[in-house]
Amino acid sequence: MVRADDGRDPGSGIHRGASDARLTELLRADTATAYPALQELRARHHTPVLAYARLCTPNDSTARQLAAQAFTMAARQTARGIEPGLPWRHQLLLLTARLAGTWAMDERAAGLDAGLLLVLNTAGPSGPVPPMLTAFQSLPSRIQGLIWYGVVERESAERTAALLGLTREDVTYGTDPALQQLARSCLRARLAASDDPDCPDFGRLIEESVRPDSPRGSTDLHAHMARCPHCTTAYEELSALRDAPRVALAEGLLPWGGTGYVAADKAPGPGETRSRANRSRPPTGWPSDRRRVVLVSAALGVALLPLVLFLVAQGGSSAQDPVGSASTPVRVPPVAVTVTATVSPSPSPSPSPSRTSKSPSPTPT
């Protein structure tokens, strides 16, 4: 069994067989049920969330504080009846980045990574918007989970199935179609954001040009992309999802450090056993005293109990209580942001599909 770096065995609680959706329901129940559910969610997701927090701050104790605050915020939102709307781990990572954004506005900014601080200062208080997030949020929760855990996190089929309450077969045969569904959603979002009436005519050409097998290029499409940022972004996103889906998703669904987050876990092949603990293992020379780990775990356990009592107290009136900015769910408006992606050279042009009205001329053969 993999041991997390906080001294706990992930998934060893009484709810270890429950899906994340079921644990979310249990968080709104009485204290005796909510506390083990919260502990189970933390055991499952704390290590990768801490790894992401360490990308936001070079200080280990500050990273632990940032990760703990993300769990607290997520738990409070759940107790108030606010649905995550995203896979639990993805939501926690977004909350971590969002909290870092609030830190950037006061004296805590000194503890943040210099690169992140520059991004936050440039993007404004709300931080940068992940370019694929709007399209991702439009998908059903099952599709989101298959993409996040199966592709970004590279969890095993069995583990992904357990987190989502699915069967192994659901994961094995559903992950690739889920990724294709996201690609179509990204394309629709980009075309819908454009004011150019010609853009919808190029949607099919973009899909044809990025097919993994026998792609069909179009000179009309490339001429259009020379003046259209929306179709260019759509082409780049779909090309990245085809060529390097894991990195493209991490960069497209996280506001900061997506590549660093997935690079911390060196690419095991499908079905290979991998250690989650290795993802956020501190660099050589960082404190690893076992007593510190035990003390941190004990202190966090004590801190979680009053939080659970708070959650239960809030549960009764939750959905209609005013929610402050610290408890607002992560929702973002559609924003046109161009992702940086390595796009393979366009294949030789071939005739464009004919259309009935005002369609681009086919490529001469």
What does this structure look like?
The longest helix is centred in the N-terminal third of the chain and has 26 residues, at 31-56. The chain has a domain at 1-128 and 285-343. It has helices spanning 20-27, 31-56, 60-79, 88-103, 114-123, 133-137, 141-152, 157-164, 168-192, 203-209, 219-225, 229-243, 245-253, 258-263, 276-279, 290-315. Residues 1-11 and 267-365 have low confidence and may be disordered. It contains 16 helices and no strands. It is globular and about 60 Å long. It is mainly α and 365 residues long. It comes from Streptomyces muensis. This is Ricin-type beta-trefoil lectin domain protein. Residues 264-288, 340-365 are annotated as: Disordered. The chain crosses the membrane at residues 293-313. Residues 353-365 have a biased composition (Low complexity).
Task: Specify the biggest β-sheet.
Answer: none
Question: Secondary-structure element sequence?
Answer: HHHHHHHHHHHHHHHH
Instruction: Give start-end ranges of low-pLDDT stretches.
Output: 1-11, 267-365
| Radius of gyration (Å) | 22 Å
Q: Which strand-content bin applies to the residues?
A: under 5%
**How far apart, in Å, are the first and last alpha carbons?**
60 Å
The residue fraction in helices comes out at 55-70%
SS field, number of helical segments = 16
Mean pLDDT level: 78
Number of strands: 0
Region (Disordered): 264-288, 340-365
Biased composition (Low complexity): 353-365
Transmembrane segments: 293-313
Organism: Streptomyces muensis
